[in-house]
Amino acid sequence: MIIELENIYKSYQNNSSSSQIKVLDNISLKINSGDSIAIVGPSGCGKSTLLNIMGTLDKASSGIIKINNDDISKFNDKKLAEIRNQKIGFVFQMHHLLPQLNLLENVLLPTLIVKETKHKESAKSRALELLRFVGLEDKIKQYPGQLSGGECQRASVVRALINQPEIILADEPTGSLDQESADQIGELLSKINKEQNVALVLVTHSLELANKMKVIYKLNNGKLNT
Ligand SMILES: Nc1ncnc2c1ncn2[C@@H]1O[C@H](COP(=O)(O)OP(=O)(O)OP(=O)(O)O)[C@@H](O)[C@H]1O
Ligand SMILES: [Mg+2]
Questions:
Q1: CATH 2.30.30.30 fits 3-225, yes or no
Q2: From atom 26 of ligand 1, which residue's Cα is the shortest distance away?
Q3: Which of 50, 63, 135, 184 is deepest in the core (most CB within 10 A)?
């Protein structure tokens, strides 16, 4: 088991009416190692909110989140940052690569704050291996501005994998790409899920991508249904 959500509620303050908007309404969900899950639903239904809560980037209004059986409410911010860095890989709609670093430097960035030197020594060879895996071995010295959107997105998948996370959380990873690049990223993510047994939770508007996952959840009116 990796991540468990129990009775998660999330409300936001509505600035124009001083009322609360209920976005997540008693959501419980278990993500086990190697799972592949798609979350679909209309714009504004709370998909990103749910994914961000899963990834400890956002806090639930109430409910319990456990990572490897530990209730995360007992962790301080430093510990949470460490979990995010080492156990979770994030992929967003926009790649968020740093323009002043080349591709290799960008994908190595998450390894710079890892303490163990054993990790650091193997990081570069792992980066090169992963960049080869996604077909970017010839582009490692290029800067993001010199690469296509699809290439940058493939690099951001490598960056998400560099610290050998147990789970990847991807929020519309193909949202900014053309059909062909979107297909490549979809293939890449499901290949990593199957071959490297990394759990995958992705939010998508693409039914084609969702259908590559074992389970599809629909989020609507704050509830999650299969
Ligand atoms: N910081 C915030 N303050 C107030 N309301 C917010 C905040 N963040 C999100 N919301 C509201 O919560 C709801 C869910 O937002 P969320 O971003 O999770 O939707 P989504 O399903 O990811 O949508 P999309 O498919 O368009 O990305 C929306 O109605 C949004 O307006
Ligand atoms: Mg969203």
A1: no
A2: 43
A3: 50
